[in-house]
Amino acid sequence: xxxxxxxxxxxxxxxxxxxxxxxxxxxxxxxxxxxxxxxxxxxxxxxxxxxxxxxxxxxxxxxxxxxxxxxxxxxxxxxxxxxxxxxxxxxxxxxxxxxxxxxxxxxxxxxxxxxxxxxxxxxxxxxxxxxxxxxxxxxxxxxxxxxxxxxxxxxxxxxxxxxxxxxxxxxxxxxxxxxxxxxxxxxxxxxxxxxxxxxxxxxxxxxxxxxxxxxxxxxxxxxxxxxxxxxxxxxxxxxxxxxxxxxxxxxxxxxxxxxxxxxxxxxxxxxxxxxxxxxxxxxxxxxxxxxxxxxxxxxxxxxxxxxxxxxxxxxxxxxxxxxxxxxxxxxxxxxxxxxxxxxxxxxxxxxxxxxxxxxxxxxxxxxxxxxxxxxxxxxxxxxxxxxxxxxxxxxxxxx
Length: 399
What we know:
The protein is mostly helical. Helices cover 58% and strands 2% of the residues. The protein has helices at 19-36, 42-59, 66-73, 81-103, 109-112, 116-127, 166-178, 183-200, 207-221, 231-236, 239-248, 265-289, 292-310, 319-328, 334-339, 345-357, 379-382, 388-396, and strands at residues 361-363, 370-372. It starts with 18 loop residues before the first helix and ends with a helix.
């Protein structure tokens, strides 16, 4: 049974082995910083939160369909008690993500996230939003939001530290990783911290969700995401590898050439490399989706489908106005939007109404300003492959 914090060393690979990871981190830092500054409609970030919730819960095998998350956000919960519980968990993740990003803004907050209080706060933020009937493990044991575990556990082949030693391990985890301030090294530390937090397994339940929320929030606080990407999607699209590398990094040192700590340095390097690759892949994908030169043809394809197949009243003449709203990430007076359509006032009013009805325009009141909307049924045109499961829901008619 682990009781001393040196037993989960190394917390970072030795300096002589860091260079390949620092190179990947450098590429990630440059690409992510550029992407984070992109102006987009607020509805895109809203949709991405739903997607993040879907994917983190899918990793745990407790996910709902995208349209079921959408229904839950409208307070339309299933009558099936098990499905309704999953819907509540999905909404709790979305709300926790918003709250954590607001709490840990860019600046000193990145350091603040490396603390026992922060880890417990993430658990509290997520599970504190659930009713008592949802706060039970699969074995029926109560989950107390924010409470460190009070008994011994086993996770597969891994036996985490004795519960009485968890605070000691978390303090070492926090002080070490919180002291890594250099840009590229901080990204390598972030990847390693994810795995080592899982190794400690501080809670009776919800450790994976807390680990992923911590990594997501830390990337945001470091200024790398702008709400436009998250590693959660990448982890979920490679779940077997995610779990395999996490578990492998729990392994003991494999001989004299495998570092000087108690645990395998080579396995930790493989894990950190995977995390950085996942992040780079997500940044690259979103950058390609937000390329303004390819956006207009995708938007035009959506309008053509609406006009000719759905016959929803949406007009292809709306292209210029919608494109402008997307690129500006702002709102516009209804009169100004209608003027961009080049139609009679009556026709423009009908066209605008059709866009609102189909969710391609959003407004907070019947006569209020309009902004770009991003309904799940339009994803297959506007952001193909971003959230394939939501696209499938739309094609199957569940949206």
